[in-house]
Each structure stands twice: as structure tokens, then as C-alpha cells.
Write a structure and sequence with these properties.
Oligomer: single chain
Shape: globular
Helix content: 25-40%
Largest sheet: 5 strands, mixed
Number of strands: 13
Strand content: 15-25%
Strand order of the largest sheet: 5-1-6-13-7
Number of helices: 10
Radius of gyration: 21 Å
Length: about 250
């Protein structure tokens, strides 16, 4: 075997070792209990802001993606174990999460709020919420924040993103904390606006580390090729205006 053919073969083997992570179908998990970001419609189809964004990224990056619904509490373990290649579910980027997964470039900076019954006259402070019941989704930034900030309150945790609202409307919880856009567009955008309202201050990652740096797509740390492809796709839809159009469709942003 000549030196040239040896080099060619070595190069081919190197390329072959990189290609499978990109060539195969990319499995992306989402917690479909968090409208308008991700949910399942009457026909059983995944719909929502994150679903459209992820589909646009995959198309721009020329990735064959399969977005599937998964239970929230199993998503991150599934990613680290290699069951999923990526996650999209309004995942905030925090130092703790960076230790176990990689993140794409950030695509939004959410604000977080409490929602409660109108006229409840709540004092949103550690002493003011003493004895109150706060409903949150387990393992979220909201869970971490209220657990740390309101130690005298009772924290009730639920696996799904919709369950805390059921507790609030049934009177079994006094407050629920979530993304402000999620509360406004999925809960208060209807009859609930007559009975419930946003309360307390807005919170962002600048107010508490639990809220992170922003929202991004989570990727298995071992898959640097996929991370590069997804970032390239995200950059492309940001540049061609598709990301802004999706923002405007769901939240009226320009």
C-alpha cells in the first residue's frame, strides 16, 4: 500500500467515524405539557413554539429529526444515557445543567412570574408567603427558586407542566410559578383571566441563578458534531428572519 493510499484510507476512516452522529435520524424529546411552547393537539400531533423552532432548525441544518413526547422527569437522564440526541422544552441554561449536558446558542430570555387568584392580596416575600401553598413542576428552575427563596411556604411539586394549574384552579394551591409568557398565553388567555392574575415581581436570570442564562436546545455532551449542526441551523433561521416570525406568531414579538 502506497503512502498516499494509506493517507486516503486514514482520512476516510476518520470521516466515517464522525458521520454517523449526523447521518442518522436525530431523536429529540420534548415535554408536551407546556403550551404554547409544546403540547399535543386534538389529532395527537406535537405543536407549539418549540416544535416549530426545532423543525425550522432541523430543516436549516439539513438534519433528519424525529421530535417525540417524553415525560419531563426522564428527559435529562434519557439524554445523558444516549436514549435521546437532544431536548427542546424551554430548557434554561444553568451551571448545574452545563455539567451534564451541552447547550446550543441561547434563543430566548424568559421572565418568570407567579399567578394567583385575583384579589388574594398576596405579599410576595419570604415572610409574606409563609404558610402559602406554591405549586410548581418538579426539577424546573421555578422549583429550585421557590424552594430556596420561600422556605416558610409549602411547595407542591408535579411531574407535568399542566398539573400545577389544576391545583390552582381547584383551590388546592395559592400560587403557581412559571414562565410569564406561558402563564399569559396558555392560562390567562381565556376565562381564567377573570379569576386569576399575575402577582409579584418579574424575575430573570439576573435576579437569581436558578433562572439561568436563557433558553437553549440541550444536546448530549458527546455529540459535538450535532451541537455544531444545530447551532448552524439556529444561526441560519435567526439571520433569515424565520426565528423572528415564529416569535411573532406566538407572542407578537417583532
Amino acid at each position: 500500500m502506497t503512502k498516499l493510499s494509506t493517507l486516503f484510507l486514514s482520512g476516510f476512516i476518520a470521516l466515517a467515524s464522525l458521520s454517523p452522529a449526523i447521518a442518522k435520524q436525530v431523536t429529540i424529546a420534548t415535554d408536551a405539557t407546556f403550551p404554547p411552547f409544546e403540547s399535543v393537539d386534538a389529532n395527537g400531533k406535537l405543536v407549539g413554539y418549540d416544535i416549530e423552532l426545532m423543525s425550522a432548525v432541523c430543516k436549516a441544518a439539513e438534519l433528519d429529526c424525529n421530535i417525540i413526547a417524553a415525560a419531563w422527569d426522564g428527559m435529562i437522564p434519557g439524554l445523558t444515557a444516549g436514549k435521546y440526541d437532544a431536548l427542546i422544552s424551554q430548557l434554561t441554561v444553568t451551571d448545574a445543567r452545563r455539567k451534564i449536558m451541552a447547550f446550543s446558542d441561547i434563543y430566548s430570555h424568559p421572565t418568570f412570574r407567579f399567578v394567583a387568584k385575583k384579589g388574594a392580596s398576596l405579599d410576595v416575600s419570604p415572610d409574606g408567603l409563609a404558610g402559602k401553598i406554591i405549586a410548581v413542576q418538579t426539577g424546573t428552575p421555578m422549583d429550585a427558586f421557590v424552594t430556596k427563596t420561600f422556605p416558610k411556604a409549602t411547595i407542591k411539586r408535579y411531574d407535568g407542566g399542566s398539573a400545577p394549574y389544576l391545583e390552582l384552579t381547584a383551590g388546592r394551591a395559592d400560587l403557581h410559578m412559571s414562565y410569564e409568557a406561558q402563564i399569559t398565553h396558555a392560562f390567562l388567555n381565556g376565562d381564567n383571566a377573570e379569576k386569576f392574575e399575575l402577582v409579584g415581581p418579574q424575575y430573570t436570570g439576573k435576579d437569581a441563578p436558578e433562572f439561568g442564562e436563557g433558553v437553549a436546545i440541550a444536546i448530549n455532551r458527546r455529540n459535538a458534531d450535532l451541537l455544531a449542526k444545530i447551532n448552524a441551523g439556529l444561526a441560519k433561521i435567526r439571520e433569515n428572519g424565520e426565528l423572528a416570525a415564529i416569535d411573532a406568531k406566538y407572542f407578537g414579538k417583532n
